[in-house]
């Protein structure tokens, strides 16, 4: 690796640590400060923090890799995500910001659900916390896989005979830096680093496709190269079945139930600021998704035109960064990839930690724990979840998009219908909420275990979020109807 690249990466790591130390001085004296930044996030910080923590390494690895391998038809995933995110900002964001503060100043999603349905408070806090920790361990592992792939692909011979192109070393170093600023600075550190990382990511996703397309002769040449190998490569519909279409756009359903994203809605400084945050966040997301699609499509043309070999499609961003740019720019681009990975990992670790701290430790072990003790336990829980994720990510054959899709579906089905209905349907009951949580998570896990997401009834697989989301919604409605009188007298 060139010295310039190393300098860029070193500056990026130093910046993240400095932000963590700044946040440590500003907002770690109380649980509200450590877990929600004092509910005082600037709209721009909330917007880019939600976007950066959402997109993760799959934006620069998984999505470009899918487009590289299968063509423009995979762009339906991005379209579905954009629509889902927009609806999330419109329906969930303002209501969640208002209701979490009004209902006992809830600091976590499990706390909000317990306050919303006091007759089932204990069951909701424990069940939702268990689901959060399990699926976030898998989701965090997906980010660490991205870090492992980055080191495995890019860091050979960094200091002469010292070779850092080791998958597990990449995982440990990625986790180590994230743990440093997350454990020290809490939610504010995570949100501020997300903001910086979101800016880096969007610049990289604008820069890379433009350089590739211009360098390879323009859009006409790129298009001709791709259609020569496959006339349908640039088609949005070729070979797309109805089930395949639903499975792609259904990714958008997941937004309503992602704790690491919707917790940003709880932390924005006011309900009135939500509209500003939404406009900033959706603009950022549109540019980022278009850029990621461009990386996959233009990258495929570049590989063909230059006779390159790419064994893993999910590393196309890394290949382009290493072969097309000056070392300083390469370092910036690799920092963008690390930013995508680290922004999501830090958010997921903090949400998992908050559930373990507030919904287990304070609930069962130390109800009278001081604020300082709670913050320190939260830091310890961050490390515990990280270790579990490292163990899951230890398989070098893991695919980023596959791990993300499983965890995304688990959260989307378990919490999506629950959050939507709890915010908008006054007649929903606590028993219905518990039924929705258990049903959504259970159906997703069973669907994956049975392999129906790969093949269903002799045809193409159905993405597990679809049956999970529908089943959870029905369970909430039916059980709420059946227990309405019981809830009214509780």
From TrEMBL:
Keyword Transport: yes
Reaction(s) catalysed (UniProt annotation): L-proline(in) + Na(+)(in) = L-proline(out) + Na(+)(out)
Subcellular location: Cell inner membrane; Cell membrane
Membrane disposition: Multi-pass membrane protein
Spans traversing the lipid bilayer: 6-24, 75-93, 122-147, 167-188, 195-214, 234-256, 284-304, 316-341, 376-394, 400-423, 430-450, 462-480
GO CC field: plasma membrane
UniProt entry keywords in alphabetical sequence: Amino-acid transport, Cell inner membrane, Cell membrane, Ion transport, Membrane, Sodium, Sodium transport, Symport, Transmembrane, Transmembrane helix, Transport
UniProt-listed GO biological process terms: proline transport
GO MF entries: L-proline transmembrane transporter activity; proline:sodium symporter activity; sodium ion binding
Chief place of localization: membrane
Pfam hit, one: SSF
Entry function: Catalyzes the sodium-dependent uptake of extracellular L-proline.
Protein name, UniProt field: Sodium/proline symporter
UniProt source species: Parasphingorhabdus marina DSM 22363
Record lineage: Bacteria, Pseudomonadati, Pseudomonadota, Alphaproteobacteria, Sphingomonadales
